[in-house]
Amino acid sequence: MARRFIGSANEMMNPEGYELFAEQAKLRAISDAGGLRANRPGESAHNYGAAIDIDIIKGSRAVTRDTAPRTYDSLNGRLGALGEHQGLIWGGRFNDPPHFQHPGIPVNGPDMLRLHQQLLRTTGAGLDALMGVP
Questions:
Q1: What is the 3-state secondary structure (H, E, C) of 56-103?
Q2: How far apart are CA 33 and CA 96, in angstroms?
Q3: Which class is domain 2-130?
Q4: Which band of pLDDT confidence, cut at 50, 70 and 90, is reported for residue 131?
Q5: What is the CB-side half-sphere exposure of residue 38 using CA atoms within 13 A?
Q6: According to the 3-state scheme, what is the secondary structure of 98-120?
Q7: How many helices, marked H, and strands, marked E, lie in the chain?
Q8: Which of 20, 45, 58, 110 is the most buried (most CB within 10 A)?
Q9: Distance in angstroms (rounded) separating the CA atoms of residues 5 and 88
Q10: Would you list the domain boundaries of the chain?
Q11: What pLDDT does residue 8 have?
């Protein structure tokens, strides 16, 4: 599903995907210090290989809300619609426009971590294994 989406959107994006729990902890520390918003380790779909963030690139420059707000909003709307058409959950529905996530897992971070822990207890493999992360 994500490969089809990426193939369809390749003119507008630069995907960032899987993040280790240690990387997520660093992102959370930056978030806690006033930086970009980030979930706690285990509460991000990125930790399980189930989400990507996409930066919009036009020409050779990133398009951001700060540099080109109308273009950013327009392209994000188009990209969001494309992702949803492919069956992905679009983060623009919860104030995280670059985020796209597999539809089979919770969007809520604590619920996601509980599912991971439940899978570990009952099957011996967590959400990351379910998503195909080695």
A1: EEECCEEECCCCCHHHHHHHHHHHHHHHHHCCCEEHHHHCCCCEEECC
A2: 19
A3: alpha beta
A4: confident
A5: 23
A6: CEEECCCCCCCHHHHHHHHHHHH
A7: 5, 5
A8: 45
A9: 9
A10: 2-130
A11: 47
